[in-house]
Amino acid sequence: LEEIQDFKGKYPRQIWSLFFSEMWERFCFYGMRGMLIFFMISELKLNESEANLQYAATQAFVYAFTFVGGIFADKILGFRKSLFWGGLLMIVGSMILATNPHDFFFLGISFTVVGTGFFKPNISTMVGKLYKSGDNRTDAGFSLFYAGINLGAFLGGYFCIAIGKGEMFANLIPEDKRWNVAFGLAAVVMVISLINFIFTQRRLGPIGLQPLKMLKNGQQIAIEKWKEYGVYVLSLVFVPLIMIMVSKPEYTDYFMYTIGPLTLIYLFYEMSLVEKIERNKLFAALIFIIFSIVFWGIYEQSGGSLSIFAAHNLNNDLLGLDPNGVNNSGGAFFILLVAVPIGLIWIWLNKKKLEPNTIIKFGLGFLFLGLGFYAIFATKFFANLQGVTSLSIFTGALFIITLGEMCLSPIGLSIMTKLSTEKLQGMMMGMWFLASAYGQYLAGLIGANMATARENSSNLEKLNAYTEGYKDLGLYAVIAGVLLIAISPLVKKLMSDVK
Ligand code: GLN
């Protein structure tokens, strides 16, 4: 381990193994995600509001499951086995969809949800393990990893839906097989992700191997095999449960009402077992987690209300691009553009002893988010009489929002690994993503609220109504940012030696 963590240069060499596995996994994930709502409406003939709710439910469950996946990894499987098992389930899910998406849609999706839960948090935790605690190159490493995420997201988000809709390779694929091929592509890239991991995992040395159980006499032994198989069986039991819950939105409500409080109780229990310094750090992590719910609640308008806004109120004054396409993939594109420069800026500022600490970075993230939403609000001043406004200005707003995402999301991953105790790494990463689950859920509620009773209004009325909503969201983001910066001395104290 020492050998890995004592690397020279900017990045540990092992990060590439994780980078590529995560890139392909995100290709699969965002490829599917991009197809969900479209497929539900055009192929499964769900009405729009039903589709919206079920879509939001799948997203909320995906992120909620990362919490479960994180705990099982910590306690029983270890990160590598979890990742492997999660990848397998994702492959099974996408193969089911590739074979018969119309009849087995929710079954396939549910496999993918559980699989992502085992895969996603644990690969992120392993990135953190490549660094010694206190290594100030950690944030830059997570920025690079985040670029991998978005490279996959960008490609998958674009190709899968384009193939499914028949906008690409239409002459090569028979019309009734397009969706099969699109979901099949997600399966294929997931296989590539796992193969990449299998062949490169050797380099990770001891990182992510099974956790050890501490005996009373201080000796450590391997976890019993039956527990490992128990986890596999249990995760298969979750699949039909998720299928049922996704199909009935009120079950999602009940789930969201219970999982959060239960998680908090469990976290407090774990906090009571550790020393005060550790406890304070976990408490600081919790503050980051809670703020991130607000962040994602606003940010995730992108998959919901902003797609509706893009469809009705944006022109194509940017290279003739389709506004929905830009709204879907613009963020990932900008991240690719800025991830490495931002990582380098942090390192440069660090050398000059000017690097803001994590709390201030989070605060900046909110300020950029707020500014971005104000910029979306401002598009209204460039609208024509029909209520259609400039895609270019909207894209500028997306860029600002992306800067905000870069100040919060990769840094959030990094800080989770730094603030949690050794034993709770997977769980804390899972909690970080659980916050995304709540963010998705919240985003759905906000979006639905903005959309109420506007279905039949004119584009101009829509423009006014939506932009007013975005102005409010901008304000909330700014308030959250200012609040975070104001409490930063306190949080800094809780974090003790972690920066
Ligand atoms: N876009 C990032 C990813 O897919 C972050 C998602 C999130 O935490 N909500 O990893």
From TrEMBL:
The chain crosses the membrane at residues 23-41, 53-73, 82-98, 104-123, 144-164, 179-199, 229-248, 254-270, 282-299, 331-350, 362-382, 388-408, 429-453, 473-491. One of its GO terms (molecular function) is peptide transmembrane transporter activity. GO terms for cellular component: plasma membrane. GO terms for biological process: oligopeptide transport. Gene3D superfamilies: MFS general substrate transporter like domains. It comes from the Bacteria. It is found in: Cell membrane; Membrane. It is a multi-pass membrane protein. The keyword Cell membrane applies. Signal peptide: none annotated. SUPFAM superfamilies: MFS general substrate transporter. Keywords: Cell membrane, Membrane, Peptide transport, Protein transport, Transmembrane, Transmembrane helix, Transport. CDD domains: MFS_DtpA_like. Belongs to the major facilitator superfamily. Proton-dependent oligopeptide transporter (POT/PTR) (TC 2.A.17) family. PANTHER family: PROTON-DEPENDENT OLIGOPEPTIDE FAMILY TRANSPORT PROTEIN (PTHR23517:SF15), RESISTANCE PROTEIN MDTM, PUTATIVE-RELATED-RELATED (PTHR23517). This is POT family proton-dependent oligopeptide transporter. It comes from Frigoriflavimonas asaccharolytica.
